[in-house]
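Weekly structure sync, notes
Attendees: PL (lead), two postdocs, one rotation student
Agenda item 3: pending single-chain targets
PL asked that the sequence for the first pending target be pasted directly into the notes so everyone works from the same version. It is reproduced below exactly as submitted, 292 residues in total.
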Amino acid sequence: MSSTLQLDLPGVQARGDSGRAARPATTPVPFVEPTPAAPVQARKLSKRFGANLILDQLNLDIRAGEFVALLGRSGSGKTTLLRALAGLDRISSGTLEVPQARAAVFQEPRLMPWKRAWRNVTLGMKIAQPRERARQALEEVGLAHRENAWPSTLSGGEAQRVALARALVREPQLLLLDEPFAALDALTRIRMHQLILTLWRQHRPSVLLVTHDVDEAVLLADRVLVLDRGRIVSDIAITQPRPRSAERREFQLVRAQLLQLLGVEVEAPAEVLVPPVPKPIATPFNFSNFSI
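Predicted structure, written out during the meeting:
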């Protein structure tokens, strides 16, 4: 028998394994029939905090296994949208369909300091062999050797990897990332980019990454969305093959376009010219300069 999830949020519906929509919440709103290709669908989604309209009749699709990045100025509603998708905030109106299995990773690891790393991974889960499941998840993020560590002894990158393992052990169909690399140093951030792409390829969840970093968005995502005043104003497909390089002209063009959408004036990137490799010049060997 398939399982379904009933969310006590107006207009939010979650699907079980069968793909059928769960029953409407207590306050039903018009439901938009989903398509199988888009497990995440929002239609005319709005969110108010008092008199402030944060999300304004927003429409969004995220396809199965798709990696989507969300950019926007501060206060544009990025985290509000992520929290709505995670089921942490009620929506004010509209319809929202999300997979039943979801997990979120935030800017801070949010580990329980009184629990060892492996217990943080399986926190709140009632599963058989929790330590073995935690060990497997920690091994995927390269931290099997730190399963007994206390959170206070972990570096910032290690703590964030434990948080990522905690998300992956739940086998999410939708992985929500709220600026998870923002507090990391540059080298650790590069390693985390490589790790998240590896794990995404292995598990194939749909991913929504909220970030302020334009380069990060273009490096990682299949699509980059720009949110402004509660609405998605741009949806750009990133067609460059992975791994991507910020030195390539295609990357620079997309970067410049996104920065302009965010209100940053930039010059169009110059042509990237690769100098030709000079041909070797054959010269006779001068024995007078040779000595043993």
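Discussion points:
- Confidence is low (pLDDT under 50) at residues 1-12, 15-29, 272-292.
- The longest strand covers residues 52-62.
Action: rotation student to compare against the earlier draft before next sync.
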